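assembly run, all chains below
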Amino acid sequence: MGVTESPLVACHDCDLLQREPMLPEGGVARCRRCGAILSRNHPRSSERALAFGLGALLLFLIANLFPIVGLSLGGDFVQTSLLGAARAMYRHDMRLVAALVLATTFVAPLAQLLALLYLLLPACLGRRPPRARLVFRGLTLVQPWGMLEVFVLGILVSLVKLAHLASVVPGVALWSFGGLMLLMAATSASFDARDLWTRLEAAR
Amino acid sequence: MKGPASAARWHLATCHGCGLLSRTGAGQAARCPRCGTPLHARKPDSIARTWAFIVAAAILYVPANLLPIMETSSLFGAQQDTIMSGVVYLWVSGSWHLALVVFVASILVPMAKLIALVILALSVQSRARWQPLQRTRLYRLVELVGRWSMLDIYVVTLLVALVQLEALATIRPGSGALAFGAVVVLTMFAAMSFDPRLIWDVLERDDG
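ok done. output:
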């Protein structure tokens, strides 16, 4: 490889071998055959992802400590949090469904956030955390299973269905889940695995 | 510059974790030297695995749509709801926009996803050369929208937790919910097993 030439990359969708163009700030390189995004040059992507991730973790705590929604009808009042809802499914002998709900709305997002912060916080300070490879591998495995944005839509649909039946009282966690969804999206959008590994390599 | 060349032809593989391009040796347990993610020139047994998940999902698709996903018992009697009757209920009660959202997420997306995966697997197996770009886009779409089918599982979970109003109304989950959840998970696995690079491999060989 020539010293002056830009590095070779292969497209992850069609495997075309190509030279990576020099990107201006904020630029995005796409595969010239299939259009997949090869790389982006967003300045301070790791710092941004870290900031969004810390905010998301805070909202995650609030979203799971408070009830999402309450229902009142003729003196009866029922309210539920995310964990309470999963427990209700478990008690109705739907253990696998309860596990699926718990995995996609609680375990996966939490694991994703913790892994990101574990890698990003030292990386932004110029250090390399121990077992970075293992944690990164866990992060890539868990990423497709976090479905908080779908859950938020599920809350909205349930609210509409319930509004016909009784008066619905939105809880603190309803708004927190909405904000959490946005912060998670912002975290994933800013996170750049290449930038992270460039930093981790430099720190070694 | 010569014609298009895939990284695999040069015994190079791109890491799906961190994007680093590295050499794939003869060794089976190749890992990315930077982040440790296992490296494959192509996903192992991609087509066979994709088919296995498609078939399993297609079988479960039947009970997922026929069995009730929840049972409501109230003062006015008991009622069983399937995915489709839930959509009809929303439509009749005037929330047609939500009915549309649930219809797309719960009925249209799983079916379209299965059909799209069958088209992709068949086209790769028959070494088809048509529209590789469109087929790659189709694959990206399948990966993007698949998760939204979980919508109904969440709705049932929340309703079951909330509608426990002793004398007035209670909602219990139905066995359809289990089958439906399984369909969503299996189609996600099917999409993860499929390797879009196989679409382009056929075009490659003839150029060289």
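Chain B has two domains: 1-41, 45-207.

Chain B has a mean pLDDT of 89.

not gonna interpret more than that til we talk
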